[in-house]
C-alpha cells in the first residue's frame, strides 16, 4: 500500500538545505564570494580584535540553521505521532516540545547574535547580551510559530488525504508528488544561491518566472486534466485547448510580476513565454501521467487481491466444520421426507443449497449471476418461512431478460440480510421490497425496508454495519468507476440502490 511520505521528504529537504547553507557560508571565506567575510574582518581590525573566519563568521551564522534543523528533526522523529501515543493522553507532549524548542532556539540564537554583533560600536558586554537575547526571543518565537502552523497544515492535509474511499491511493500519490516537487524546487533554489548562480538576472528569471509556471502546469495536467479525460474517455480534439488555459493565467501572473519588479518585456515576449510553458509542460505531464496511471492500476489490483485474500481467510476461519453441518442437513432432509414434513424438507434443502454455495462459489473471483440470484431466492424463501403470516410484507421482483453476466459472489445478499435484520418487527407492520433488473449492459439492484425504533442494545447501527462497509470496499476494488451505490436512510425507511455497468 502506498503511504504518505511527507515526514521523510521534510527530513531529506532539511538535511540537504543544511548542507547547501554550509557550503554557501564556506564559500564566503574563499574566492570572489568572500566579500562579506572580508568586510566583517575589517570591522574586527578597526576595533583591534583578533579575527577568525571559523569562530567569528562561519559558526555564528551556521549555528541558528543547525538549531532549527535539530528542532525539525525532533518534530519528525519523536514518536508522539505514533498510534500508541495518540491513544494515550499525550496532549502535553507538543506543549513541552514547543517550550523546550523555543528555549533551545533562543539560547543558540542569542549566542550566535552575540558573536555576530560584537564589533558594533554600542557593543558593551551587558548591552550586547541584552540585545542578543531580545532579538533571539523574537526570532525563535517567529520560527516556532510558523513551524507549528506548518505542522497544523500538514496534519489537516494528511487527515483529509488519508480518508478511506476509492480515490485514497490517487490522493496519496498526488500529495507525495506535490510535496516532493516543492521541496526539490526550494532545495534547488538554495543550491543555486549557495553557488552564487542566482546573482545573474538571466538564471534568476528562468528559475522563478519560467520554471515555476512550468511546474504548476505539469501538476495541473498530470493530476487534473489527464485523469479526468482518461476516466471519461474524452478524445484529444475535445480537450486540447484546456492545456493552454493554466499556462495562460500563469504567464499573465508571471509577466505582471516581472513588469512590476522593474523588468522590461514586450507583448510578443509574453506570448512566447506562454507558448514555451505549454510546449514543455504538455508532453512532460503526459509522460508522468502514463507512468503513474500504470502505477495506480497496479496498486489497485494488488489492494483488491489483498482484500479478497483477507476476506476469504476470515470466511474460512468463521466456519465451524461446514462439511459436517452439510452432512447433518442431508440427514435431517431425509428424516423430514420420511415423516411427510414436506415444508420442513423444502426449507432444509434450501439451506443445504445455500451452504453448498458458501462452500464452493463464494471462494471464486466471479460466478454466473444466476447462481447469486438462486442464493438470494433461497434466502428470501427461508425468511418467508420464518416470519410466516406475521405483519411483514415481502416483495421480490426479478427481471433478467437478455442478462448473461458474471458477478463477484456475495455482493447482493448482504443488503437483503440487512433488510431482514433491521426492517422486520413482530409488533409493528413491516415491509421489504427487493428488485433486481439486469440487461445486457447493466445491473440494477434495489432494496427498501421499513425501519423500527430498536430497544437499546449492543446491535450496531445501520450506518456502522461492518458487512455493508466491506461490500462498499469490494465494489471499489472490483468495479472501480463502473458502479454507483446510493443509500437513503430516514427514521422510517432504509433504501439502497446499486448500479453495476458491464
Account of the protein in words:
The chain is α+β, with helices and mostly antiparallel strands and 502 residues long. It folds into three domains: 196 residues; 119 residues, no CATH class; 142 residues, 2-Layer Sandwich (Heat Shock Protein 90). The chain has 15 helices and seven strands. β6 and β7 form a beta hairpin. α1 packs antiparallel against α3. The protein is elongated, with a radius of gyration of 34 Å. It starts with 5 loop residues before the first helix and ends with a strand.
If you average the pLDDT, what whole number results? 78
Poorly predicted runs of 5 or more residues? 455-464
Largest sheet strand order = 2-4-5-7-6
Secondary-structure-derived class: alpha+beta
Question: In percent, how helical is the residue content?
Answer: 55-70%
Q: Gap between N and C termini, in Å?
A: 28 Å
| Proportion of strand residues | 5-15%
> How does the overall form come out from the CA principal axes?
elongated
Helices and strands, in order, run as HHHHHHHHHHHHEHEEHEEHEE
Number of helices: 15
User: In total, how many beta strands?
Assistant: 7
| Count of domain modules | 3
Radius of gyration: 34 Å
Largest sheet: 5 strands, mixed
Summarize the structure.
With 502 residues, this protein is an alpha+beta fold.
Topology:
Blueprint: H1 6-27, H2 35-46, H3 53-77, H4 83-87, H5 92-117, H6 125-161, H7 168-194, H8 201-232, H9 242-260, H10 267-318, H11 322-338, H12 342-359, E1 367-368, H13 369-387, E2 392-399, E3 406-407, H14 413-422, E4 430-438, E5 442-450, H15 466-478, E6 483-489, E7 493-501
Parallel strand pairs: 2-4
Antiparallel strand pairs: 1-3, 4-5, 5-7, 6-7
Helix pairs in contact: 1-3, 1-7, 3-5, 5-6, 7-8, 8-9, 8-10, 9-10, 11-12, 12-13
